[in-house]
Write a structure and sequence with these properties.
By secondary structure, the chain is mainly alpha-helical. The chain is built from 5 helices and 2 strands, in the order βααβααα. Strands 1-2 form a two-stranded antiparallel sheet. It is globular and about 40 Å long.
């Protein structure tokens, strides 16, 4: 469910700063065999960046399908390509499988998608940076 709230750019900046720790963790894990942990962290970074964008605009998502709605709205807001939205949604579904059902990410998934995830992450972060600068 999408709620209108007071824009909170300071909180958005704080969330953005936390994503840097996750990125550093991923760099530390690269080359090691931790695809599930790395993919879960990629997911969290993407979700947190999206959350920060919407906080800066005065929007909050709550409820059972909040993360799905965040990515749907982000896709509309940023005009993401269809494959970018599918990547976000697939990562969300797989992360839920990992977290709730013990279904690990396969190493091949990370190998096949890491570059696309990193490019999308940079694109979303760049959008957030512009949002935070403009307001």
């Amino acid at each position: 469910m999408k709620l209108k709230i007071k824009p909170d750019r300071e909180k958005a900046r704080g969330i953005k700063n936390i994503t840097q720790s996750r990125k550093n963790f991923i760099k530390y894990c690269k080359g090691k065999i931790f695809p599930t942990i790395i993919c879960e962290n990629y997911y969290e970074i993407l979700k947190e960046l999206a959350t920060a964008i919407f906080l800066s605009e005065g929007i909050k998502f709550v409820g059972e399908y909040a993360h799905k709605e965040i990515f749907e709205e982000l896709s509309k807001l940023m005009g993401l390509e269809q494959f970018e939205f599918y990547l976000l949604d697939d990562l969300r579904i797989r992360r839920n499988g990992s977290l709730y059902y013990g279904e690990p990410f396969e190493e091949i998934y990370l190998k096949n998608n890491e570059e696309k995830i990193e490019l999308l992450m940079k694109k979303i972060e760049s959008f957030l940076n512009k949002e935070l600068e403009e307001k």
